[in-house]
Each structure stands twice: as structure tokens, then as C-alpha cells.
Amino acid sequence: MGGVVGGLRKLETPFVAPGPCGVAVRDRLKLLTSQDEGVLRAVGAHQGALASRDLKTRCANGLEHGADTWAARKRELTKVSSSRIAGSITKATHDQWALARRCQAAHIRQLDAGIRTLRHRLSLPLGEKGTSRAAGGYRSKGEWFRKSRRLAMLEERHTAAVGDWQAGRVRVVRGGRRLLNTRHHLTEADLTEDRWRERWEAERWFLAADGESGKRFGNETIRVTPDGEVSIKLPVPLANLANTRHGRYTLTARIAFAHRGAEWADRITANRAVAYRIHLDTERGCWYLTASWQRPAVQTIPLAAACARGVIGVDTNADHFAAYRLDRHGNPVGDPHRFGYDLSGTAGHRDAQIRHALTRLINWAKCAGVGAIGIEDLDFTGEKTREKHGGRKRFRQLISGMPTAKLKARLVSMAAEQGLAIVAVDPAYTTMWGAQHWQKPLTTPHRKMSRHDAAGIAIGRRALGHPVRRRTAPPPHDRSDRAGHRTAQAEPGTRRREGTRPPTTDRPPGGPPPNGKRTREPSASNTVRDAPSTHRWVQDSLMHTG
Questions:
Q1: Can you tell me the distance from the alpha carbon of 365 to that of 372, in angstroms, rounded to the nearest whole number?
Q2: CA distance 286 to 280
Q3: Residue 37 backbone phi and psi in degrees, to 5
């Protein structure tokens, strides 16, 4: 993030987010026989045990890992499986160890941030007020004492974590630590021991194979033909289960990818690499096959080209996206749009809500004809610590519940399929400046503007390279429309950019009605002043009183 210059943080330059580099599609393996399921369970359990053993060896090696140890592990696995299966297992092991290593580094950084905050607040006098950039002192001696004890605890954790990092020790649970801890809370999770055991074993299975270009249909271990036939190369100890030649087992199920099926078929027809993974959803009792492949890196388009047709600025909130369309000059067009979602409930429900809201946003962007979507480059990593925000528990829950990383990844991949660019902008001051410069001027009796709608305009203008504030009007006597307020923007070379605004209706003021027809009859005169001069007033005789 940028530094602080003149009391304000330096804003980062907007940039076009790179597109996705990989694709994954999934389909259900339907109509499997009991023999098919038995073979899949046997292969998954056998290879899962090999993966667990290999992960244990890799974690024991720590920082002493090298090409020789990798080759030795692969040779040991090849004896009880095959060379390709051993390669897939060792690669998955390295990815899992590297992920644990990155999480360990992130944990150390979070502990560092908490320790710095606690030391700063403990050094201040009791009751001292904080600023917008730094928290103040604690409110009472009791709170000061509790936080001093927490500081000692965090320092102890930090020392242990740094020691593990320097020694290369990581802690990994195949199957997931959350599912492992659920074993001690079966009643709260509404699970029986047998159901938990089934889920635990299914998560520890290994039924995956990396693709290989130049081989038949792009994969030798799990092969899927263009007509959807799925066959698996069995490991050596399970070769007796084969039902076809060369130690392969062919499933009765057929695969037909409805999404990106044509792209997948083009790859396997050309014998290009496709990776496959088979897994069991124990809650639904269904088997699924996931196909994934890499896409060549495509250079992102320039920022000016992405915003040539205008942009839609999107403000991300806890329960909705606030979006506003802007033309290429930075002028708001139309009314604000809001796309709501609910981030409560399970992870699957939250993910579905995000996908549905993004789908509606992208569909509106396509109908509007813009070429890019501007969104804040949010990162709440340093904001989630409770040491920084103290008792603001509701605020910490708010920012912790916003899936910013998953949202950005999904938005980039979904927008790329529709030919839309994603412009990431600095989130600093967008809500404050948007409300200051745009909320009140755009509020009308028929259009209600919120701070979030105004922030969408600020984000869109920042993506276009314009300042957030509205155009400053010239002095009254220098305006082309005299006392009117000129705030619309246009390029310097645009003709009549300072001219009078066009009428808001389809005819000039005082001009003839369209098609020569009035929309309503003129009303009758109610006053003497409205009567024509040729009209002679005659007093009614009935009005005489005698």
C-alpha cells in the first residue's frame, strides 16, 4: 500500500487485473454400479495411504529437501503404484507443504501486528484518545492488566512460530484440521461416529492424476474419451480388479461436461494435458469428476482501451454490491444499481450468493455496453486483528465475513468469459469522498443516493483516471448557460463542450408538440387576466338583486 504524504495516504495507480490462468469443470459420475464404487474406494484408499506416508516423509525432511530426496520418494512410491501415480502424489505433497509454509508465514505476520499494537497501546497513559491512524490507551487498569497478559501470550506464540519457521517444521492434517476437530463435537455437528468416519476417509483418499501433453487424450492414468468413457490405470497391488487390457478399469458411467465442454473436447482431441480428480460427496452420496487445465498467459489490455466504452464502479459491502455506470469522461449515467447477497450460513451458501450476485452484475455490464468493471483492491489482512480494533467486535466480524480474495478471483474469471476487464483501484477515501462530492447533487425525489452508491461513482472515476471530485464550475458570467451549473465532463477537443445543455424533452422549449398532437387539452381560463382582450364581459341579469 502507499505511504502517507501531506496527511493523506498516497494512492496506488489503477491497473487491469490479469485474467485466469486455469480452468476447472465438474460433472457427476452417474449410474455407477456397486463394483465401480468398490474399485474407486479401493484405489482411493490405497493411494491415499501412499499420499499420507509421502507427506510424513516430506515434513520430516523440512528444509533439507532437494532433488535427490524427491527422486528417492518417487522411486519408493513407484514400486507400489506406477511412475505417473507417484509423480502426481509427490507433486500434491509439495503443493500441500508449500501451502502450509505460506500459512505459517502469514500467521507470524499477524502475530507481529498484534504485538506491535499491544505494545503501543500499553505504552500510552490510561484513557488517552486515539486517532484515525492509531489506537489510544486502554480505558482502565483492569483492561491494561489483561492486555499485558495477552501480550505475553502472543510473544510466546510468536517465538514458537518463528522457531518452527527457521527449522522448517509445518503442521499439516490430511483431510482438514476442522474436520479432525469435529470428531470431538459430533453432537454439535449433528453427526454420528460412522458418518464422521466415512467423511474423514473420503477426504483422505487420493484419486487424482496430472495431465501429460502428447499422450492419448491428454492423460494416461485417468483417461476420458471424447464420447465420455472413463477408465483408470490401477496401481500394481490392485491390478487384479482390472476389467480391460493393460491393467485398466473402465467405469460404466459416462461424462458429458455441459460447461466448457467444447473447450475440453478440443484439448483431449489434440492430446493436450488435462488433469482429473475423482471425489465422493458423502452428504449427497454422489461421485464427481473434475477436469482442469491451464490456459496460456494472455497479456492484459491497456487501461485506456479497457475503459474506452465507459466503466461500472462497484462498491463492495457486507450485504450488497453498489454499482454505478459512468461514461468514458467520468459522468454518471442512469440510476444506481444494487445487487444483494447474504453471507450467513454455510460456506456453500455464501459461495452461491456471491456467484449469483456477480452473475447479475456482469449481465448488467454486458447490457450496458461497457468494457470494464472497476472494483476496490480490498485486503483486510491487517484489519482483522482484535488488538487493533479493541472492543469493536461487530466491525471485526463484518470485515472477517467479507470473502475478498474469493470474490476477486471469481469476478476476474467470470468477467473474462464475457470479455470484460477488471480494473483494480486503491480503496482509500472512496466512500468519504464519494459521499462528499456526489451523494447530494445526484439525490432527487425519484432517486435515492446512499453513501455506497456515491462510492461506486468514486471508484469508477478513479478507474478512468479522473479525480473523484466533480468538475469545478466556472464563474457565473463565464458560463455558456449563464446561471446554470456545468459539471458534465468531455474531452478538450470535443466541439461545443461548453455549449448550452440539450433540452430534457424531445422538443425545444416553446416549440410545437411532437407529431402535431398535444398530449392533453388546454385547461380553461380561471382568471380575468387569462382572457383574450376581445372578450366583452356581460353581467348576468340573474345576478341583479333589485
A1: 8
A2: 6
A3: -65, -35
> In angstroms, what CA-CA distances link 247 with 25, 250, 295, 377, 412?
27, 10, 32, 51, 42
Q: Compute CA distances 38 → 41, 79, 241, 508, whole Å.
A: 5, 23, 10, 80
Question: For the segment 37-58, what is each residue's pLDDT rounded down to a tens digit?
Answer: 999 999 999 999 999 999 999 9
Nearest to 251 by CA among 38, 81, 89: 38
Mean predicted confidence (pLDDT) in 472-480: 58
114, 147 Cβ separation under 8 angstroms: no
Specify whether the CB–CB gap between 226 and 294 falls below 8 A: no
CB count within 10 Å of CB 399 equals 15
Ramachandran angles phi, psi of 248, nearest 5°: -110, 155
CA–CA gap between residue 436 and residue 430 (Å, rounded)? 10
**Planar angle of CA 138, 143, 149, nearest 5 degrees:** 110
pLDDT of residue 531: 42
Whole-angstrom distance, CA of residue 218 vs CA of residue 269: 8
Bridge partner list, 26: 290
Q: How far apart are CA 463 and CA 311, in angstroms?
A: 8
Residue 240 carries which DSSP code?
A: G
Which grid cell sits at 164?
A: 518452527
Q: What value does the mean pLDDT of the chain take?
A: 83
* Per-residue pLDDT, 410: 81
The number of beta carbons lying within 10 Å of the beta carbon of residue 17 is 20
Percentage with pLDDT > 90 across the chain: 47
**Confidence tier at 528 by pLDDT (50, 70, 90):** very low
**In whole angstroms, what is the distance from residue 473 CA to residue 488 CA?**
10
From residue 270, alpha-carbon distances to 215, 236, 381, 546 in Å are 10, 29, 43, 112
Residue 340 DSSP SS3 = strand
Compute the distance between CA of residue 33 and CA of residue 42 in angstroms, rounded to an integer.
14
Reported for 442-447, long-range contacts at CB under 8 A and 24+ positions apart, including other chains, are 442/332, 447/335, 447/336
* pTM of the entire predicted model: 0.73
Q: What is the phi-psi region of residue 176: left when phi exceeds 0, alpha when psi lies from -120 to 50, beta otherwise?
A: left
Handedness of CA 236, 70, 84, 100 (dihedral sign): positive
Torsion angles phi and psi, residue 223, rounded to 5: -110, 130
Distance CA 400, CA 143 (A): 24
Residue type, 293: W
Q: Point out which residues pair with 29 in neighbouring strands.
A: 287
- 340 CB contacts (<8 Å, ≥6 apart)? 319, 320, 357
Q: How many CA atoms lie within 13 A of 411 on its CB side?
A: 28
